[in-house]
Amino acid sequence: MDRFVPVRKAMAKCGGLCYNGVCFLxxxxxxxxxxxxxxxxxxxxxxxxRAIFFVGGFGxxxxxxxxxxxxxxxxxxxxxxxxxxxxxxxxxLLTMPLSGAAAVRLGCRRVLTAAxxxxxxxxxxxxxxxxxxxxxxxxxxxxxxxxxxDVVVNIxxxxxxxxxxxxxxxxxHALWSVGGFAGAGLFGIWVGTFSLTPLSSTGIAAAVMVxxxxxxxxxxxxxxxxxxxxxxxxxxGIVTFVGIIACIAFLVEGAIMDWGxxxxxxxRHFDMALAGMGFTVFSAAMLTMRLLGDWTVQKLGQERVxxxxxxxxxxxxxxxxxxxxxxxxxxxxxxxxxxxxNVVPVFFSLLGKQHVMPISxxxxxxxxxxxxxxLMGPAAIGFIAYQEPKSLVTKSLMLPGSPxxxxxxxxxxxxxxxxxxxxxxFPT
Length: 428
What we know:
CATH superfamily of the largest domain: MFS general substrate transporter like domains
Distance between the termini: 25 Å
CATH class of the largest domain: Mainly Alpha
Radius of gyration: 22 Å
CATH architecture of the largest domain: Up-down Bundle
Number of helices: 17
Mean pLDDT: 79
Largest sheet: 3 strands, antiparallel
Shape: globular
CATH topology of the largest domain: Growth Hormone, Chain: A
Number of domains: 3
Strand order of the largest sheet: 1-2-3
């Protein structure tokens, strides 16, 4: 225990700590802290983590069909709607840096259970809100809840994977995508096939989120790591590098999601009905590769997966720009999905191996930087496209620039053998 410098501070603040597969929680009893020992997280904790990832993706996908309904209900224009939706990003960015401290003080179980229940309730509230001011408040809280779930579930995932001693992160992140597909697909079935009202469909979606959260809550971790007495901290050392890579990876995903359809319709002159096919192929490829990701990383090694995946993403972007046939064009989207799928999970796994920052501070820092990539990427592409509206090269090469930097940077600075990591936790 002497390798953990902040242990006494953590005891004073009544936090938690994991060491050699055994977890300790400091509980407040009057003016003193009492140490309670927990066993090593096992299969039940792994399934609970996957369930919360599912809830996160399911809620995000269930919210998407409500956007046009909210616009019509409030009677606002597209520009006002864009500013209104920005509240989700602002709420997430405000909450993410603080979520690690909340996990330390309250434990992953309390934070994720409360956030999951609030997430479902907010979804139902956003389906009925008719006041613009109230919509702003609800969207801020909705974004804050979404960001909190994203950070804390990744903290639990890092702890659970570290205890298991094998790769789990890619499969866990895949459940977010599974939740997204389920949420989007079921909403269409409920409204289209069963002719339910949007309110009824949203009520069912909220009920699914609440039930899954409650079922998983008893196996969520009652602790959330050790923050060394700090509320938040700026990324440093190798955590900064991981955060930059996460930002680049999320930038690529945001670019495909927000600008893929625009590129297909305006540059490639696809019919509007096919505008979403690129992102569909990308998402399906990413989901499939994440389901196979843990096995792939174990067989090929994490360095090969990251560098090879980045190069494959570059090839995909080149196919999108220059492919002479539709088949090769869609193959480009497929390559990008496969290439980017396991970059973020691999680097989140690395956070469990580093000892530069506590997990409860490192994960929020990386998640915040990654989310900035999602927010900044589409905006940057839009700015460049506006400045050079007639330049195919300018508009298109903005996209492959990110994975190209990714591959070059990672190959030069790959951190798996760094002095900042403990290689004994699980094999590379």
